[in-house]
Amino acid sequence: MKALPILLSLLALAACGGAQRTGDENRSGATELTIGLTTDDKVSAGDDEVDWKRFHVAAPTTGVVTVYWDEPAVGARITLRDMFGAPLAEARHTLGTPSDVLPEVRLGEGTFYVEIVATKGASVYTVELTLGGPSSAGVPRPE
């Protein structure tokens, strides 16, 4: 009888692939980004491959996403997506560099997502979202 709980635990672990679940591994569990502030997290190709972040834009503006890596040797991809999941901008991490910047994107009103994927290795990272970049001269940043 003691073998049944152990067997069930092993089956549950196998069904999850043994991966560490943090809640933000899919778009529906995306954690909120605060505009103008930084957010830290970690991705790992071994057990926490994907992190999703989200933010809301109240009026049309431009946006820039920057990711700073603690481990510049990580293999990673950063994608900015619209509310339906369609990609708006993407950058593949250049090995050895400490940060990646997505190209400035024109954003309409709505919800947007940042998907950060580890393809090799692991790293703690800091993500920063700024709105009202250089091409939006005269448009004040939301506070």
Provide the gyration radius in Å.
18 Å
CATH class: Mainly Beta
Supply the helix-strand structural class. Answer: mainly beta
Mean pLDDT: 82
What oligomeric arrangement do these chains adopt?
single chain
Our count of helices gives 1
Number of strands: 10
Structure in words:
- With 143 residues, this protein is mainly beta.
- It has one domain (22-133): Jelly Rolls (Sandwich).
- The protein has one helix and ten strands.
- The chain has one helix at residues 3-15, and strands spanning 31-32, 38-44, 50-57, 61-69, 75-81, 87-92, 99-101, 105-107, 110-120, 122-131.
- Strand 5 and strand 6 (87-92) form a beta hairpin.
- The model is unreliable at 4-19 and 136-143 (pLDDT under 50).
For this entry, give a set of tags.
Jelly Rolls, 5-stranded mixed sheet, 5-stranded antiparallel sheet, 10 strands, disordered C terminus
Topology:
Elements: H1 3-15, E1 31-32, E2 38-44, E3 50-57, E4 61-69, E5 75-81, E6 87-92, E7 99-101, E8 105-107, E9 110-120, E10 122-131
Parallel strand pairs: 1-3
Antiparallel strand pairs: 2-10, 3-9, 4-7, 4-8, 4-10, 5-6, 5-9
